[in-house]
Structure formats: structure tokens, C-alpha cells
Write a structure and sequence with these properties.
0% strand; mainly alpha; single chain; 72% helix; 8 helices
Length: 218
């Protein structure tokens, strides 16, 4: 009997699949909310019910995305795990109290937690983003991970401020639309601004890999 053991084949990365996992649940929330939301009727009760139904769909979609990540990608990143846990927690509060404020402050809390963790880790010389993303960017040097952790920490802090400004200034429907149509393009733009630095710091030099577009949690 051959004593050699074969390593399980590593599942292929997919940028589109990662994008669907990151933003699919938010899209489900947006579509379900829009389907049940009254059109300019001013019915506050119907508006809250639309938020509650959208939140329920959001929770289910987030849990499905977690399962798909494990099934298709072979792993669940700590960032995705924490994001899903907070979606379930604050979504549950939204449904229980029938108050949309809980689902609105959830992104701010996520952004603040990640900003604090990454910036504290950076100051201590530990690139925590490498562990949060489960080493998604193969070949990136330790120095590159340090720079990336600092930059993402500052970016998450900026997102926290932006979310609170939009939450205070916009009605719920417009805030929800901004989450999808503003935050996602901003995240794409920020990610691509980091690529030149990552390429200089060894990304893709050890082996030819497909770079996944990493998005912040929703």
C-alpha cells in the first residue's frame, strides 16, 4: 500500500464568484425591499414591513453565500465569517424591533471593527489583512501585506464615516441604493488603486494566478 498521501486539489479562484458572494446578499436585500416597498404612499407601516422582509431575505442570502464560499471555493475567510455573523445579529434585531436603524448601523460597526483591527495590527507590525483574507493575494510580500493592511484600515475608517453621513442625510431607500451603487464602485476603484503597489511587492511573480477583486463586507 502506497504510504504517500495526495493533497486535496485546491479549488480554482473565481473573481465573479467572489463578487457574487460579497454583494449577492445585498442585491437580494435591495430587490426584495423594492418589491414590497410602497411607491411614494407615505405608509410608514408598509415601509417598515418592506424593510423587515428585505432583512429576512438578506439573512438567508448571507447564509447561502457562506455555504457557497465553502462549497465552491473550499474555504470561508474570517472577514466573510464575521460579516455574516453581524448580518444575522443586526438583521435579527431589525426584525425583532421592526426598526431599520439596526441594519443601517451594521455596516458602520463592521467598518469600525476592521479599521481598528487593521490599523492596530499595522502599528504593531502585524499584517492582519493577510489572515482576514486567508492569504488571497498569492506571492505578495510581507511588506506589501503591511502596506495593504494600513491602506484598507484607512479606507474602512472612511467608509464608516461615509455610511453615517448617508444614514443621517438620506431616507432608507436612498441609503440602501447608495450601499449598492456608491459603495461598490468605490470599493472597485480603491482595490484597483492598490494593484500597482501589490505588483511591485511580488503579487503574481511566484506563479501565474488570477487576482480576485476583494470587496469590503456589506
Amino acid at each position: 500500500m502506497d504510504d504517500r498521501t495526495e493533497a486535496a486539489p485546491k479549488k480554482k479562484k473565481s473573481g465573479w464568484l467572489n463578487l457574487a458572494i460579497d454583494y449577492g446578499p445585498l442585491l437580494v436585500f435591495f430587490l426584495v425591499y423594492r418589491f414590497f416597498s410602497p411607491e411614494k404612499s407615505g405608509n410608514a407601516v408598509a415601509e417598515v414591513l418592506a424593510v423587515v422582509k428585505g432583512t429576512g431575505a438578506f439573512i438567508v442570502a448571507a447564509l447561502v453565500a457562506l455555504g457557497v464560499s465553502k462549497w465552491k471555493l473550499g474555504h470561508i475567510t474570517p472577514m466573510l465569517m464575521l460579516s455574516t455573523a453581524l448580518i444575522v445579529f443586526f438583521g435579527g434585531l431589525t426584525i425583532f424591533f421592526q426598526d431599520p436603524v439596526f441594519v443601517q448601523i451594521k455596516p458602520t460597526i463592521i467598518y469600525v471593527l476592521f479599521a481598528a483591527a487593521l490599523l492596530i495590527g499595522w502599528r504593531m507590525g502585524r499584517p492582519l489583512l493577510k489572515y482576514l483574507l486567508d492569504a488571497a493575494f498569492e506571492g505578495l510580500s510581507d511588506r506589501g501585506w503591511m502596506i495593504l493592511s494600513r491602506n484598507w484600515g484607512l479606507y474602512f475608517a472612511a467608509l464608516a464615516v461615509l455610511n453615517e453621513v448617508l444614514r443621517a442625510a438620506l431616507p432608507f431607500e436612498d441609503w440602501l441604493a447608495a450601499k449598492f451603487w456608491l459603495f461598490m464602485p468605490l470599493s472597485f476603484l480603491f482595490t484597483f488603486t492598490q494593484l500597482p503597489m501589490m505588483m511591485r511587492e511580488g503579487l503574481g511573480k511566484e506563479e501565474e494566478t488570477e487576482v480576485e477583486t476583494t470587496q469590503p463586507p456589506v
